[in-house]
Each structure stands twice: as C-alpha cells, then as structure tokens.
Amino acid sequence: MLDNATFHKGGRIAELVEAAQCRLLYLPPYSPDLNKIEKCWSWLKARIRHGIEQFDSLHDAMDSVLKAAS
C-alpha cells in the first residue's frame, strides 16, 4: 500500500511487484490520516516550529527535536 507520490508509480518497483504476482494498492489522494508517516512529520514540524527561534539553523532544531524524541 502506497501513497500517490509520483515516484511510487511505475518503474522497477512495479515490475518486481508484478513478478511476485502481487499488486500495488494506492491510498486516495491527500489522505494523511491513512498514512502513518504523515503523523510523524506533523509532530516533528510542530515541535520545530514551536522552538525554531532558539536555534541557529533548521538542522540544529531538527537535531534537538529528534534527540529529545529518542
């Protein structure tokens, strides 16, 4: 099951899936509630936005948030 990102369609992955006698199922367009990683990105972005002013760079903010989460 994949989202509708263009890089998920066609190419080598589709060939491999068909060769395994499987099929690809795509989520409906813009369905973040069905895509678990979207919740993770939303959480990460919210924490970065909340404290971005205390960091010198986006990289530093991301590093801090990810370290706090693990």
Describe, in plain words, how this protein is organized in 3D.
- This is Transposase.
- Pfam families: DDE_3.
- It comes from Limnospira indica PCC 8005.
- By secondary structure, this protein is mainly alpha-helical.
- The chain folds into two domains: 1-30, no CATH class; 35-70, no CATH class.
- It is 53% helix and 0% strand.
- α2 packs across α3 (58-69).
- The two termini are 27 Å apart.
- The mean pLDDT is 84.
Quick take:
With 70 residues, this protein is mostly helical. The chain is 53% helix and 0% strand.
How far the N terminus sits from the C terminus, by CA atoms, comes to 27 Å
Question: How confident overall, as mean pLDDT?
Answer: 84
How many structural domains does the protein architecture include?
Answer: 2
Question: How big a fraction of the residues is strand?
Answer: under 5%
Please describe the biggest sheet, giving its number of strands, its sense, and whether it closes into a barrel.
none
Strand segment count: 0
Helix content: 40-55%
| Count of runs of 4 or more consecutive helical residues | 3
SSE sequence, one letter per element: HHH
Protein name: Transposase
GO molecular function: nucleic acid binding
Pfam families: DDE_3
Organism: Limnospira indica PCC 8005
Layout: helices, strands, pairs:
Blueprint (H helix, E strand, L loop, with lengths): L10 H9 L16 H16 L6 H12 L1
Key descriptive features of the protein:
elongated; single chain; 2 domains; about 70 residues
